[in-house]
Design goal:
2 domains; five-stranded mixed β-sheet; single chain; Glutaredoxin; alpha+beta
Length: 172
Amino acid sequence: MPRQDTSQDGRSRTRAEDGKHRAVNAVPSTVTGVLVLATVLVLSTAVGLVHRRRDGRLRRPTARPTADAADLRPLLGGHRAGERVTLLQFSSAFCAPCRATRRTLSELAAVVPGVTHVELDAEACLDVVRRLDVRRTPTTLVLDAHGREVGRAGGQPRKAEVLRAIEQALPS
């Protein structure tokens, strides 16, 4: 029966019955560490690239629960919904991308006739945030003239994509 022991250089060896040593686990631990490090770097880079690609991307609404115009009108409070399109932004007090999103959406609302930008504090209307499945701030909903969601962006949306969503929401 072979017996395992460790030599002075730290390698495991098996001593056969004839007394000769045979190397086992010949791969040094530094090579294993480098392989683990390389794998972690590749995986974290891939996750970062996917996150970067999806962040702020406007998507079409899915089968998630959405609110209709009757649910959203009371939220607008003193704000008036846009005649043709409403850009509804959910923000929070300590959100740096929310400020940049506010600038972008306000600029678009000023340039495109019939478009209104409304910013709501996500903490002030948690029940609607849950019902609309708002998971982060800023989240921007693009609503058509009837108050239906036609697009959604989690994160800071790109100006060109918001313009495209506005064009799609406009009545032909």
